[in-house]
Amino acid sequence: MEFGVGYFPTHDGMRPGEIARRIEERGHTALFFAEHTHIPASRETPWGGGRKLPQKYWHTYDLFVALTAAAEATTRLRVGSGVCLVVERDPITTAKEVASVDHLSGGRFEFGIGSGWNREEMANHGTDPRTRLALLGERVRAMREIWTNDEATFHGKFVNFDRIWSWPKPAQKPWPPILIGGGGPTAEQRVLEYGDGWFPQWHDTDVLARIAALRARADRYLQFQVLSVPPDPKALEQLEAAGVDRASVWLPSGPWSVVEPALEKWEKAIAELVGR
Length: 276
What we know:
It is a single chain. 38% of the residues lie in helices and 18% in strands. The chain is α/β, with parallel strands linked by helices and 276 residues long. It has one domain (2-274): TIM Barrel. An 8-stranded parallel beta barrel has the order 1-2-3-4-7-8-9-10, surrounded by 4 helices. A two-stranded antiparallel ribbon has the order 5-6. Strand 2 (30-33), helix 2 (63-72) and strand 3 form a beta-alpha-beta unit. Helix 2 runs parallel beside helix 3 and helix 8 (233-241) crosses helix 9.
């Protein structure tokens, strides 16, 4: 099992390239950046992490700008989105950004995707929250057409374009791993329909049992990665036994003096697991 970290790349914290370089130097295999274009000031949608939404949610750099900086600062580290809110993005533009980061990084990009939880945020992008999951699937399928065809065409309910040219193509073939985030009741079906793996949070209900069930249903190889993993060797042991490919912890946003102690706790848990 590999180990990684997740991070909100805020303008008042460690720069994306700086944290990527340190993560790579310490032997971790992947760094995932969160995405929010904004947070509506009049938000009514409850946040699952508590009553008060942390400020980092509306202070992040643009996802693909941060990922480019992280990729340029490293040579081996996998860089990814944890997760990209595809329902808030134009699919042609997003396909270009994914392919660009993957090409510039030499094939080190991992495309974690999700539909988001903030209904007001997605509505500001013109997305109807009631149809966001259908929209997500169409946009992913449209992007796959762009990545794999010299001349791409797509016609769906939400996405339509005739005969377009878009380069570069991703370095990874046929595309960077598409990791489906979310732990709702239809998450597994989305993985089976258009994903290359599942990317749930540790606190999602019955995640270990659901991983086993999804693996049994799949007719192809799937990646299993878990975010929000606590720095606890017992949790890591459970994930390893479940055949999870990578476990990642969220680190706090801020300067190195804030990030390093949390990273050390994570590394201590890893050392205890590996040393058993």
